[in-house]
Amino acid sequence: MGVFSRWSVITTLVAIIFYVGATFTTRFVEMFLASSLIIYLISFAFSFFAVHKSEKGKVKLLSFISFFIIGAYVVLMKPFEVVRLLLWAKNLLNIMFITR
After folding, report:
1. Digit-coded pLDDT (tens) for 3-20
2. pLDDT tens-digit series, residues 42-66
3. How far is the C-alpha of 46 from the C-alpha of 40, rounded, in Å?
4. For position 52, what pLDDT does the model report?
5. Which pTM value belongs to this model?
6. What is the total count of domains within the chain?
7. Is the separation of the CB atoms in 1 and 56 below 8 Å?
8. Which of the chain's ends, N or C, has fewer CB atoms near its CB within 10 Å?
9. How far apart are alpha carbons 88 and 33 in whole angstroms?
């Protein structure tokens, strides 16, 4: 298992922990969801680099495949989480760039 494969698995687990944390808390839900999404995209990038570098083992595909499986789960089973995250990002961008 190469460096990128190892980091892709670690960041996938951290992203899943953040997502589960968002379901158990009533405060900071958007922060947990946004952090989970960003970490999960980083995990996908690590997995992509592991595939590109042709690292040994099949662990490199774990994060790559889980990205689509977990993404499909969130979109199909919890679509309002996606809408909530997109609205939060839109409001954050409005605050950052329009109110100056």
Report:
1. 888 888 899 889 888 888
2. 988 888 888 888 888 777 777 778 8
3. 10
4. 86
5. 0.73
6. 1
7. yes
8. C
9. 10
Going from the C-alpha of 4 to that of each of 10, 32, 66, 87, 99, the distances in angstroms are 10, 24, 16, 32, 40
For every residue of the chain, DSSP letters joined together read --HHHHHHHHHHHHHHHHHHHHHH-SSSHHHHHHHHHHHHHHHHHHHHHHHHTT-SSSTHHHHHHHHHHHHHHHHHH-HHHHHHHHHHHHHHHHHHHT--
How far apart are the C-alpha atoms of 5 and 62, rounded to whole Å?
Answer: 9
Sign of CA dihedral 38, 17, 8, 79: negative
CA 26, CA 91: separation in Å to the nearest integer?
Answer: 19
| Tokens encoding 77 | 């089973």
Please give the residue range of the domain that contains residue 8.
Answer: 3-97
